[in-house]
Design goal:
Low-confidence stretches of chain A: none
Radius of gyration of chain A: 27 Å
CATH class of the largest domain in chain A: Alpha Beta
Radius of gyration of chain B: 34 Å
Largest sheet of chain B: none
Shape of chain B: elongated
Shape of chain A: elongated
Helix content of chain B: over 70%
CATH superfamily of the largest domain in chain A: ATPase, nucleotide binding domain
Number of domains of chain A: 3
Oligomer: heterodimer
CATH topology of the largest domain in chain A: Nucleotidyltransferase, domain 5
Distance between the termini of chain B: 126 Å
Largest sheet of chain A: 6 strands, mixed
Order of helices and strands of chain B: HHHHHHHHHHHHHHH
Structural class of chain B: mainly alpha
Mean pLDDT of chain A: 86
Number of helices of chain B: 15
Low-confidence stretches of chain B: 59-113, 239-252
Largest interface: A-B, 51 and 62 residues
Structural class of chain A: alpha+beta
Strand content of chain B: under 5%
């Protein structure tokens, strides 16, 4: 039974598998590799995933959720059609869809998976991802960092040279930077830095904001639908600017059509603050790893947003090197995760490939300062960028006379003041009470961080050699085995829309969106076409449905891809040609 | 067992050899199969590399960066920089006061090759890079705060409530953010497209700016709060109507341009008027005399 690799992205997700001596990407039922990470609930309470749900983002924003990866590991809940879901629940629907795609492709049940996460995810976020996998019915074999996976993909096939490269992973919602030292069969990550809330989505928002400010509009006047449509046309503008020096966007707000032109210089101005934020993690990764730009042999681009010429030029300006994108930035991570699944299965070709990862954050313990009034500080035990698996110990002493307990507060983060870091949990250890006021007890605290980034704590009281252990899982969203089982059953009761009707379903959703986005005559036309398509669907005649499907897709293409002014003319021409053919 | 025994090599300062040995041994102790042994192996590898790096310092002719800033190192660094052509970010950081006359033509040469367009981009990138350094991670926090404010604003029923906004600005943890330069530019930009507040909230914002925080030290002009407070009254009647004119907020240059144009026009009018009156006077005088 195969292990699949899954790249669970903010905007798109992919699934891959190691077959023979190469990695194969698995297409979904629409024949595409990229499945949008969007989940919706339709009017019948059925779950929709992927492109179909993405189309409904504009027509049914209240029943559709996107970019939920940003909320992994938080208690944030999404309300869709009257039901409440956590980010893990929503991710599990995407994972389940990918699982079905893989099973259809491999023609065998798939139960094990390697899932990738941003290198800069903290323990809570990693755990939430693991839970999502379990909710989808996977046994999660390993959590891998996305840039590390991409590095693995690049390294495969040219293992002779020694190389140091920088992986620049700029996706829809996260920025991850890793520095990789590669020699022989070893791919070693030496430094990681990033920003969990910076991505292409932010650039779309900045463009939309510029649009409003140029046109003298206010956010407060927008409906949810209009905002979603505006974001979509902002994204389209951004993509067009990748290929042409100038582009145009249009949006209908409160019944009026507004337009804006932008060139690449304008795009730079709009995204200035996002570009500024890129510099911080870049320089931190270099400093942490003890590198200079001249030590870096190659820059590898990963993630959809790194395709932007603006981002590439800025990187080239900083580094003096042209960044590489030999593997499509959209799929590089998926290819690497698939390879890792192969390593995990001990497949012959990749058996000896070794990927060592590091922990992105410092792990430590809260200690009080000599001045008791001052806030307690963090004492590091495992420094950030230590290679996994790792085990480190440190000795601490009781602070007060006649102390009965030591409270070990486990912290993750880089701030000196304890409170500013993330608290992963606490452990109460009884210590022998001292006889005089001067007596102090010592404890040894050992942190062990395994390859999945799961932390285990052992506290030994030095005088008695008694040991207390604890494995850390998120206290707030911690789920026991039974609770996961229960939630899985609950989610299973929700019907997922059958795969075979996906295509027609997608077209209906798209039609709804086009109807929503347009006004006046175009809207009337769109309504008519969709009515005709529904009628064809009701005939249950496969040939008629297929014919209507092609026709409706073409008509919607005309509406979407021609300038707003000439839509009607082109539609009329299409209908006239059609009529002539029938005569 | 010392680190070299674990790696199965003779003690050496050759980092390449250490890496080779580590790679070889890692095939035997792959972390997927032997996590415990691998931990020991990796520790040994790190130790050996560290030893090699440190011991190489006194023996090699080169001065490595572990030694700190010494004069010979500068000379050497400078030479390599010259050899490799241009290294803009690097050259900036180095205090090259000693040999400015060498540096100048070095930098100019690549610049001449570049088109005006590229120079513009590089200049803009330079600004972005240095702004990023100045803000020192503050941009990330500012983005988060503004993001939260945006979320609150999008909730139509809640955005008019003053206490929500007070919660933001009274949060002691955010005090540092509100004083930063990055915040000011973002805050003013935010207000341009988020202006449907109640009079109360606008007045609160106006009272904060200048007393609690101020953009003046950064040379940022104060946001025209008064304009919006006055507009609130008129806007209340016709709610959904977008503001007709926003020039005073958006383009200070434009208003300057307009006022300059008006000045010129006035000046011309005065000139024309005086010419006309002198002509009339001339005619009048001629009439009288003639």
């Amino acid at each position: 039974m195969a292990i699949v690799g899954i790249d669970l992205g903010t905007t798109n997700s992919l699934v891959s598998v190691w077959q023979g001596d190469s990695c194969t990407l698995i297409p979904n039922n629409l024949g595409e590799y990229l499945t949008p990470s969007v989940v919706g609930v339709d009017e019948n309470g059925e779950i929709l995933v992927g492109r179909t749900a993405k189309e409904r983002l504009i027509s049914h924003p209240g029943r559709t959720a996107a970019s939920f990866k940003r909320f992994m590991g938080t208690e944030e809940e999404f309300s869709l059609g009257g039901r409440r879901f956590s980010a893990s629940d929503l991710s599990s629907f995407v994972l389940k869809q990918l699982k079905e795609d893989a099973e259809a492709f491999l023609k065998e049940p798939v139960e094990e998976a390697v899932i990738s996460v941003p290198a800069y995810f903290n323990d809570f976020q990693r755990n939430a991802t693991k839970i999502a996998g379990e909710l989808a019915g996977f046994k999660v074999e390993r959590i891998v960092n996305e840039p590390s996976a991409a590095a693995l993909a690049y390294r495969f096939g040219k293992m002779e040279e020694d190389q140091t490269f920088l992986v620049f992973d700029f996706g829809g919602g996260t920025l991850d930077i890793s520095i990789v030292d590669a020699f022989d069969n070893v791919v070693e990550i030496t430094a990681v830095a990033g920003d969990n809330h910076l991505g292409g989505d932010d650039i779309n928002k900045a463009i939309a904001e510029k649009f409003l400010s140029v046109r003298g509009l206010d956010f407060g006047m927008l409906t949810k639908e209009e905002w979603a449509a505006l974001l979509k046309s902002a994204e389209k503008l951004k993509m067009e600017l990748s290929n042409s020096p100038q582009a145009e966007m249009e949006a209908v707000i409160s019944g009026r059509l507004y337009g804006m032109q932008m060139d690449s210089r304008g795009l730079l101005e709009v995204s200035t603050r996002i570009m500024e934020s890129i510099g911080t993690p870049l320089s931190r990764a270099l400093v942490d790893g003890g590198y200079d730009w001249k030590d870096i042999d190659d820059i590898i681009l990963v993630g959809g947003s790194s395709k932007m010429p603006l981002v590439q030029n800025y990187l080239q300006f900083l580094s003096g090197k042209r960044p590489l994108s030999k593997i499509d930035p959209d799929v590089a991570v998926a290819v690497g995760v698939g390879m890792y699944a192969g390593i995990k299965e001990r497949m012959a070709v990749v058996k000896d490939m070794m990927l060592t990862d590091i922990c992105p954050f410092t792990l430590g313990i809260e200690v009080s300062q000599e001045d008791r009034e001052a806030p307690s500080v963090m004492s590091p035990i495992i420094e950030r960028n230590s290679v996994l698996p790792v085990s480190r110990a440190a000795r601490y002493f009781t602070a007060n006379p006649f102390q009965q307990f030591c409270t070990v507060v486990i912290l993750q983060g880089e701030h000196r003041i304890a409170k500013q870091n993330l608290c992963l949990g606490r452990l109460e250890v009884p210590v022998p009470v001292g006889k005089t006021e001067q007596d102090r007890e010592a404890i040894d605290v050992r942190y062990t961080y395994d390859m999945n980034g799961i932390l285990e704590i052992d506290v030994t009281v030095v005088s008695t050699q008694e040991t207390t252990s604890k494995v850390i899982v998120n206290p707030s969203i911690r789920l026991t085995e039974e609770e996961i089982q229960k939630r899985r059953e609950e989610l299973q009761k929700l019907k997922i829309h059958p795969r075979d009707q996906e295509k027609n379903r997608l077209l209906l959703a798209r039609g709804d969106r086009v109807f929503e986005e347009n006004t006046g005559d175009v809207r009337k036309y769109a309504g008519r076409f969709m009515g005709e398509f529904t009628a064809a669907l009701n005939t249950q005649d496969a040939r008629k449905i297929e014919k209507a499907y092609t026709r409706t897709s073409e008509l919607l293409d005309i509406i979407e891809n021609s300038p707003k002014r000439s839509v009607i003319v082109r539609l009329d021409k299409y209908l006239y040609d059609e009529w002539r053919k029938e005569q | 067992m010392n680190c070299y025994e674990v790696l199965n090599i003779e003690p050496t300062n050759d980092i390449k050899a250490i890496k080779k040995a580590y790679a070889r041994r890692s095939r035997e102790f792959h972390p997927e199969e032997h996590p415990e042994e691998f931990k020991v192996l990796h520790d040994a590898y790190e130790e050996a590399v560290l030893r090699a790096k440190w011991s190489s310092i006194p023996f090699s002719g080169k001065v490595s960066h572990y030694m700190g800033d010494t004069v010979p190192m500068f000379a050497e660094e400078e030479n390599t920089a010259d050899g490799s052509g241009e290294e803009p970010s690097d050259a900036q950081e180095e205090p090259h006061t000693e040999m400015p006359e060498i540096k100048v033509p070095e930098i100019k040469a690549p610049d001449m090759m570049k088109s005006g367009e590229e120079q513009m981009w590089d200049a803009r990138f330079e600004q972005i890079a240095s702004a990023g350094n100045q803000n020192q991670g503050m941009t990330e926090q500012v983005r988060k705060v503004i993001g939260k404010m945006h979320e609150l604003y999008m909730d139509e029923t809640e955005r008019g409530k003053l206490y929500h906004w007070k919660d933001f600005f009274d949060d002691p943890q955010l005090a540092e953010v509100f004083g930063s330069r990055a915040f000011f530019t973002e805050w003013y930009r935010f207000l341009q497209t988020h202006s449907l507040f109640t009079m109360q909230v606008w007045q609160y914002f106006a009272s904060l700016d200048g007393s609690r925080f101020s953009g003046e030290p950064y040379g940022i002009r104060r946001f025209p709060y008064q304009f919006y407070i006055e507009r609130m009254g008129t806007l209340r009647q016709e709610k959904a109507e977008p503001p007709e004119k926003k020039e005073p907020v958006q383009d200070p240059e434009k208003t300057k341009g307009i006022s300059a144009a008006i000045k010129i026009a006035l000046f011309a009018a005065v000139l024309a008027g005086s010419a006309l009156s002198s002509l009339l006077l001339g005619i009048f005088v001629g009439e009288v005399l003639g």
